[in-house]
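Input record (Table S2, row 227):
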Amino acid sequence: MKIIEARSINKYFYAPDRFHALKDISFSVEKGEFVSIMGKSGCGKSTLLYILSTMDTDYEGDLLMEEQLVTGLSHEQLSKIRNEHIGFVFQFHYLLPEFSVLENVMLPALKLGRKTKEEIEHDAMTKLRLLDIDSQATKLASRISGGQKQRVAIARALINNPSIIMGDEPTGNLDSKNASIVFDIFRELSDEEDLSLLIVTHDEDFANKTDRIIEMEDGRIISHKRE
Ligand SMILES: Nc1ncnc2c1ncn2[C@@H]1O[C@H](COP(=O)(O)OP(=O)(O)OP(=O)(O)O)[C@@H](O)[C@H]1O
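Output record (adenosine-5'-triphosphate complex):
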């Protein structure tokens, strides 16, 4: 099944001048597939991820999630889809420093309001165990290392059991040892949990180990390299 699909997406910016930022972008990510997006600075990677994650609705073309058209839905509907289907991991973890590790992971599920606090706490501990960071649960998020913070950010991205994880340089701020730990976690999530991953990276070693590399140049996809 296609978890996400872009059909002929074009994006223009109008300030200061008209600028064609994404040119006829078409591709899809299958269930359980681990895909990386590479390309020089300014080629449009973040702009594309912003559209695919349904945050930016100002584009031409169609976006489908789990084979349903999402282009044209209201902001409320999109926000629901985002919360239920997409987990985000960024270069900077954006954890709330004054909250505990456990509370940070619980937050997106509390926001969704589907389960009791006890159930959410149980789920959050399960995710923290999966990321092998449950021993840090009661610590303040500001009091753990950079690599640990990124693992907590991944646990948080997983809390609502999304079908896809999208990442904008999630290992960009980590040393090589921690970057490799985070990569291995992504690989395991793809192989064992059948989770789809779409990760923007500048790290060629990282990209070479994913299932497919989407290479961008000047707003276009110029190749799909399958490993
Ligand atoms: N809000 C905006 N208004 C005008 N132009 C923009 C805006 N946002 C991005 N751009 C332009 O669109 C192009 C793509 O930007 P984008 O941030 O997607 O690149 P990127 O590939 O993610 O780069 P990087 O690797 O440096 O993060 C760039 O030329 C950028 O200057």
